[in-house]
Design a protein that fits this description.
Elements lengths: L18 H6 L4 H9 L1 H9 L10 E6 L2 E6 L2 E2 L1 H5 L12 E6 L5 E5 H17 L7 E5 L4 H13 L2 E4 L6 H11 L3 E5 L2 E3 L2 E3 L1 H9 L7 E5 L19 E3 H6 L10 E2 L3 E6 L9 E5 H14 L8 E2 L8 H13 L3 E5 L10 H7 L1
Parallel strand pairs: 4-17, 6-7, 6-8, 8-11, 11-12, 16-17
Antiparallel strand pairs: 1-2, 3-13, 4-5, 9-10, 14-15
Helix pairs in contact: 2-3, 5-6, 7-8, 10-11
Length: 352
């Protein structure tokens, strides 16, 4: 006898959006028709909305199973997310609104963010990080996480973000597989009202990471009294973020990157086997990110966008760091969990 599942509720009604709302959407049927008619022409038009240092000579070189997008083209992801917004009014609009778990709040304009990214990029260069080097990032959801990613993109270093909830062993395995030369971490981060001692976990991991030369440590509570998660600093290897950035200039030229140069490596969770490093290249990734942010979310520059994913996963990479900034919108960076200190935190954040 076949078991049956009773249908207790079947909703047949449809709730279409108001006609004026639908008519104003950026994604219309004509866009789908354009893509179906000539996909290469469609993606060429999407890529054309970005700033290119050198135009591509071929949209797609498809040699199954390998695809190369925008062959011969050069661009820089950080320049597209920041520099091109600075000459106009976006310069002084909020790029990041950060909501920290203990109630901390910071707002960075596009100008503020660009300066921080440039300083971080110069700090990395001062430590000998060069184009093509791997940089591991092990941080809570604080603005410096996006700054670190964009700084790597600016100088052509390949970032590999490791979820801040992962163990020392998981961090070690990912650092070693990527052969990272530097790690950016923090003394700690908040989760459910508790301090997660990220630096302590990082030190445990680094005992087995021979390729790491330098560690940059962000003080989670700058200027607000004692360090909440005491961090042991190894002389010659470990550097406080704030001290390092104070020594460098706030201007760093954007490195021209080939469209097929690596932007980042992001590892799978490892729940079904050894974590696999997934590589994302510069031109194809940013084109897809900018277009999906625009059309799927109908995001416009006047909008405030909140992706509730963690930056340690690809959704967070795409729709916390790169997508909203690529289209000149304002993004929310949210530390902690939605139910702490109570289940109303999400709605309180939205209301703000």
């Amino acid at each position: 006898m076949t078991d049956q599942i009773d249908t207790l509720l079947s909703e047949q009604r449809r709730f279409p959006p108001p006609a004026d709302f639908a008519a104003a959407a950026q994604a219309q049927a004509a866009i789908y028709a354009e893509a179906a008619r000539d996909r290469e022409a469609f993606w060429a038009r999407q890529a054309g909305a970005l700033d290119w240092i050198r135009p591509w000579s071929q949209v797609l070189d498809w040699q199954p199973p390998h695809a190369r997008w925008f062959v011969g083209g050069q661009l820089n992801v950080a320049a597209n997310c920041l520099d091109r917004h600075l000459p106009g009014p976006r310069r002084n609009k909020a790029a990041i609104i950060w909501e920290g778990e203990p109630g901390d709040r910071r707002v960075l304009t596009y100008w503020d963010l660009a300066r921080e990214v440039n300083r971080c990029a110069n700090a990395l260069k001062s430590l000998g990080v060069r184009k093509g080097d791997r940089v591991a990032i092990y941080l809570p959801l604080i603005p410096e996480a996006a700054v670190a990613m964009l700084a790597c993109a600016r100088i052509g270093a390949v970032h590999s973000v490791v979820f801040g909830g992962f163990s020392a062993e998981a961090l070690r395995d990912r650092i070693n597989d990527a052969q990272a030369v530097a790690l950016i971490t923090a003394d700690g981060g908040y989760r459910r009202g508790q301090i997660v001692p990220l630096k302590r976990f990082a030190d445990e991991a680094l005992a087995g990471c021979p390729t790491i030369r330098d560690v940059i440590v962000i003080r989670r509570h700058p200027g607000s009294g004692p360090i909440q998660a005491p961090a042991d600093m190894l002389e010659g290897r470990d550097h406080w973020w704030h001290r390092l950035l104070d020594t460098v200039d706030a201007h760093c030229p954007a490195e021209p990157m080939d469209a097929e140069d690596l932007l980042f490596i992001l590892y799978t969770s490892g729940t079904t086997g050894k974590p696999k490093g997934i590589v994302h290249t510069t031109g194809g990734y940013l084109t897809q990110v900018a277009s999906t942010t625009k059309y799927v979310f109908d995001l416009r520059e006047e909008d405030v966008f909140w992706c509730t994913a963690d930056i340690g996963w690809v959704t967070g990479h795409t729709y916390i760091t790169y997508g909203p900034l690529a289209v000149g919108a304002t993004e929310i960076v949210f530390e902690g969990i939605p139910t702490f200190p109570d289940a109303g935190r999400f709605w309180q954040t939205i209301q703000k």
